[in-house]
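Margin note: ligand = NAP.
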Amino acid sequence: MKYRSLGKTQIKVSEIGHGTWAMGFMWGERRDEDAIAALKEGWNLGINFVDTAYLYGQGHSERLIAKAKSQSEHAKNLFIATKCPPKSRGWPPRPGTLFREAFPLDHLLAITEKSLKNLQVEQLDLQQLHVWLPQWLQEEEFPQAIEELKKRGWIKYFGVSLNDHDPNSGLDLVKSGLVDSIQVIFNLFDQTPREKLFPLCQENQVGVIARVPLDEGGLSGSLSPQTQFVKGDWRRHYFKGERLKETCERAEKFDFLMRPPVESLAQAAIRFCLSEQAVSTVIVGMRSVNHVSMNASISEMLDFSPEELEKAHALAWPRNFYPSFP
Ligand SMILES: NC(=O)c1ccc[n+]([C@@H]2O[C@H](COP(=O)([O-])OP(=O)(O)OC[C@H]3O[C@@H](n4cnc5c(N)ncnc54)[C@H](OP(=O)(O)O)[C@@H]3O)[C@@H](O)[C@H]2O)c1
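Resulting structure:
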């Protein structure tokens, strides 16, 4: 496993990070034993970055991480990033929502305290806002909230997870110097962060956590137009109607990236994310030991050639299939 700096924090994070949304909720059936085994296998293989959120099962995924930690001798020097959900309704937040409505200080403190308890730590490595509106930069409550969390010693670093497919909403935030990291969707389909966000993050030494590298499964190579999602799997909506068929057709166009040592589309898609030097870690959702071992090995693979990358860049397909909630 190779490691990269998380912006100016000097923390070395594994190129492959562990995403834990599906361990918590919304992805249909799940087995906690599998999730714990997957986390432990990742740590055995050198993964030291885990992304979670209070929202993932009201702390369920955070508690699973704590449980796995208590059972693993390789869980040293882990860096665990969590997120605070907004208190206000609207996901993403409705334009005009004030910071103090979305993240009133008492809410931010209460959720942070719960995450500390769930993760069984005295300080969070990284607390992130789970949503973002650029107007919040103009509100004094925003930097005050960060300061308060740091003053209490409850968080080491602070970051923001940008709303789905909206990387440019983070440009002024990156320039502000207020955040240590930015989390953003980046994959073969949505390559938009390459245009403005990534160069700016490098210039300002802000860490980049690249999320959804497999397009929620669309770039995993394991879906077909016939795939049926189980009850309770939110992807019934994401891939509804003709979306799944088109996604599979578009994904097939990247088959040229599957050449030795790259064995699968999933590996190609993750390797692609690592071709960007601005990216600190790529967080892949993984609930099985099998996926963890396949994905951890990608870090050591050689990068794609400039010609391969150029071809991949030309096949980008930005669109937004995510549901929004009023
Ligand atoms: N707003 C936000 O802040 C936000 C939103 C979305 C995601 N995230 C974070 O980003 C992480 C990653 O995104 P995601 O989990 O939504 O989606 P993802 O990583 O794009 O895709 C996850 C899917 O890929 C499958 N997979 C993983 N490795 C594979 C392999 N080698 N071969 C075939 N299939 C493979 C997983 O299966 P298994 O589950 O069976 O292993 C799962 O179905 C999340 O877990 C979460 O931590 C944050």
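The domain at 3-313 is CATH 3.20.20.100 (TIM Barrel).
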